[in-house]
Amino acid sequence: MRHPVLIALCLTGAATLAGCGNRDADVDRALEAVNVIDESNLNDIMLTVGAPEEAVAYFRGAVEKAPDRIDLKRGLAKSLVRAKHPAEAATVWSQVVNSHEGTNEDRVAYADALIRANDWQKAEAELNRIPPTHETFQRYRLEAMVADSKKQWKKADSFYEIATGMTTQPAGVLNNWGFSKLTRGDASGAEKLFQEALTYEPNQFTTKNNLVLARGAQRKYDLPVIQMTQKERAELLYTLALAAVKQGDVTVGKGLLQDAIDTHPQHFEAAVRSRDALDAG
Known about the structure:
By secondary structure, the chain is mostly helical. 77% of the residues lie in helices and 0% in strands. InterPro entries: TPR-like_helical_dom_sf, TPR_rpt. Pfam families: TPR_16, TPR_6.
């Protein structure tokens, strides 16, 4: 007579254990979801605010543990670019684009790494493999740079113009475009582009220096009306002085060197050496 009771107890116990098992599985899934979110946040932090070399170490370790995770390989490639290891980054990007998860955007990033590694021919080949329907700022920026490297000026100008219109922050593209114009001998066109770039990033010293070079190439030996610190003013006067000497206007160059020395808040060793060299011969 007790058998039905025992069976009932056993069944109840089994049901209880099964219920516990389900709860444990639910908890495991919940924790796994939290871990994925935490990892995703950590990945984003490493790619944006983490120190470049630390990010490389983090993603390298992550890829070693999960070599099939393409998202981690993307993180490693991006970190290697940030850490200024473009050749290594290109190797990793190659693995990404040749996987079944590779995208057109990955191929653009691959081309970018190749350009940084000075492998222009391979970069062009990768850009040519991207369908024309993939129209992004980054893609056109790289297309412009490749055309520039081949001295295809009309093509480069077209791509620079398209890229400029596809971003709200075109300062970098405008600076590159201006430098391209300067190397072609179009100093006036370069000056306009550098000026425009500074309206977006007025603190970018490289663009200020390029602007002064463009003006010097036109024998405009006064500094443009732009935002600058006292130290920057001295350094720009120095750049202008060298441009004047290069143009054969040595007397003007000497005067600008002295202005740079007098303006600099500290001792301006490079300008002093240049002035003394001119005085000596």
